[in-house]
Amino acid sequence: MGLLRRNTTADLIAGSVEPVLVDKFGRVATDLRISLTDRCSLRCTYCMPAEGLQWLTKTERLDDDEIVRLAGVFVDHGVRSIRLTGGEPLVHPTLAAVITSLKRLAPAPEVSLTTNGITLDRQAHVLAEAGLDRINVSLDTLNREHFAALTRRDRLDDVLRGIDAAAASRLHPLKINSVLVRDGNLGEAAELLEWALRRGFELRFIEHMPLDADHTWSRAEMVRAEEILELLGEQFTFRALPREGAAASAPAEEFEVVDGPGASEWPNRPARFGVIASVTRPFCRDCDRLRLTADGQLRTCLFAHDETDLRGPLRDGATDVELGDLIASAVAGKQAGHGIDAAGFTQPLRTMSAIGG
Ligand code: SAM
User: Fold this and answer.
1) Quick check: CB of 350 below 6 Å from ligand 1?
2) Cystine design at 338: which of 99, 160, 251, 303 (Cβ 3.0–4.6 Å)?
3) Residue 19's pLDDT is what?
4) Integer Cα distance of 186 and 215 in angstroms
């Protein structure tokens, strides 16, 4: 196991300190999610209201230079992976240029994308050429009517075309994110897994979190990881993979599919799926994530009620050192856990789409 290098007074005097973002519980932040926009091309019922939200203005949003400058400060402080998200990052017109600029940072971070896949058929190749390393596409159902009901848009075919294009580019391993909803797509868990296994994709089921604009989340109604595993167990045999190495701080619990439809389709590719049980099996103790919203607010937890404004100081002329200090002190104060189970838990004002999932 690697030991964290501690900066000594001698290092400080010699100026050879490698700044790291560490909180009071000893967690080191190395992963940054950047929301490029709060706008989205879908209106998933568990995320956004039908009429959308009040969108940020162009002035309120960080521009590309600001995004890359801030990302550089995070990288200088030990961030090694950056995930671009939103809203829907594919609606950001200069996405490829942002990726290229991020990959020029030193050391170059791993850059990945979380997307709903709409227009990905036209963009996958360009994004891969720009330096994108990996991609996650969100897809909750393979049934056109269910898709239209869940997302309030009849765009399943566009998403499937986007997934095909990503698979044809070098964006591997391709991960698919699915949120299961009791009165929506719960019965499709096994079908989704078989579909993903046959194509060599890694499916990850995400527990529904209390971050929806319509406040429809209910602890009693949400589909729990336990229930998903039971359902899948009716058709598949699988075993939990150990949480070690990079997987130790990953949000997904990983499972190897030993037997079941599609399990042996790709003899040279692991047949796997994951469950992100943010609500019932929280991984806050190992959380290494930070989030930068499209309007330049740093959030150290999805469920935090406070944010650190980086846009204001950036536009007022703060130096990289000053921005780094702001980031470091925000991280130092990161809360122990999301607190969904705590008495008096209240949902943050920002929804998932406005934070950057
Ligand atoms: N538009 C992109 C997409 O669809 O992947 C990126 C943003 S979206 C907010 C990121 C992920 O968050 C998606 O996989 C979506 O299903 C998930 N999500 C949205 N609201 C959620 C909620 N309340 N609970 C759990 N996951 C949610």
Assistant:
1) no
2) 303
3) 78
4) 20
